């Protein structure tokens, strides 16, 4: 290094730095209680661990974290029976921003092994960054910390107003541990209410192993369960306990359709307890399109917005708890880390595997599909990576069989020479089975899947094929059904059909791209079809409703040359064709669930026709 190069330490305006720590790292004031409880839990875990080799560090029988509001004094106290801090510890840990005593202690445990196979003997510590304590200044304008290190008789008090300086003075404390007293700001009255404190503990720290109590008028009320059910072995949990936890985590009143409880071990370790509900929630899953599975780190709740499952599995509820996930300093915004991505993949794969297994039970799977089938279909549209795995889970109504059927079952029933999987999409499930679009298929014994969910217009094009069979909408393009024999009455087309088709096409040149005779109608006179390369009719309707160009061009009007109405037009006066053409198009639109081009004019035509018959 050149002798002219000077080395300098960074300078910092401590008061400003502390202000940034307090007001920039945390978006929600209530986080302060989680941070202080986490620190207290770490301190008690450290004392419990040290007690393994030092009797002087043994925890008292009633050791717990005590939270005491005092409305008269406007103080909130958080007290623990943890390892405590000496004078030097207070100066080092609280007097140096971003220095974490927990992190330093954790480093000494990096190679520690649990004794006798007891994993709980090794403490599970939460704190990492040494800034959580300062969140107290979000609600307090003065904080005092009185602490006594386990194994010593000396206590000290650290005090600060969060302006960049602090004081240290001798104090007294009967037992080892730490007491934090926050002198609350004028706008922090809510944290003097015991019910509010109880809610925050249950929200953020309900499952940490350290007991937490709210103290009011000298009485202690337990504020946390203290037992993380997902950390127990499945053999130790009763069905009733699973159901109770399911109801509490998701605010449900039914029984879960499926319970998934497992622990992943290896390079990445986590525990998971997930539930598939037995009924639709009161708030439809379509309203919120993000997964709300809760993420915990060492039992402490972090967020329910980690998107641990893709949106097409958002109905799944429960908890994922890990000790391997790096978090940023505020713990409110997760870092984009490979560890989190691996957890997401593993959890999604496990849920998908469970659904695949349960889908083999047709009767049991039906209840799930009727509740959440439309949401699962979104996975075909959104999840390219898992599209092939999701497809076998899909179930449909069919023109050929009762109940629900899957794509694999459809393929097994395909007729000789049938190359495509046929489907029809519409808004109305009941009207689908009566659609004229099905007449030619039904007459020839060709099965058509009937799709009526909101997402059905989107996903088939994304899936495209199943078991090498293309998916084909019956409304899309010219379908040649002539190679399939069936019950359709062929008969002879009336003379003049070609001329009739040409005249109808001329009359409807502004509304259709083509008019043609078809053999796929039996009882109906007309039907609409989409062009061969554009979206099918249902997608075109959705695009029009959204105010967007359909993209598939004008529809095609197909006519049944053997229908009495078409025969009458072919054999009747030429001047009747043009007015009838518009009515035929409106009839075809209505049959497909659309509206007439001009509802008033159509109503007048119908009224006139009825009057003529009266």
From TrEMBL:
Domain Histidine kinase/HSP90-like ATPase: 28-188
Record carries keyword RNA-binding: no
SMART domains: HATPase_c
Keyword Ribonucleoprotein included in the entry's annotation: no
Chief localisation class: cytoplasm
A as annotated region, ranges: 1-331
Entry-linked PROSITE patterns: HSP90 (PS00298)
SUPFAM superfamilies named in the record: ATPase domain of HSP90 chaperone/DNA topoisomerase II/histidine kinase (SSF55874), HSP90 C-terminal domain (SSF110942), Ribosomal protein S5 domain 2-like (SSF54211)
InterPro entries, per database record: HATPase_C_sf, HATPase_dom, Heat_shock_protein_90_CS, HSP90_C, Hsp90_fam, Hsp90_N, Ribosomal_Su5_D2-typ_SF
Region (C): 542-614
Keywords from the named record: ATP-binding, Chaperone, Cytoplasm, Nucleotide-binding, Stress response
Localization per record: Cytoplasm
Quaternary structure and interacting proteins, as annotated: Homodimer.
PANTHER family on file: HEAT SHOCK PROTEIN 90 FAMILY MEMBER
Family statement drawn from the similarity comment of this UniProt entry: Belongs to the heat shock protein 90 family.
Function of the protein: Molecular chaperone. Has ATPase activity.
HAMAP family for the chain: HSP90
Record's protein name: Chaperone protein HtpG
Organism: Methylobacterium cerastii
Gene from which the chain derives: htpG
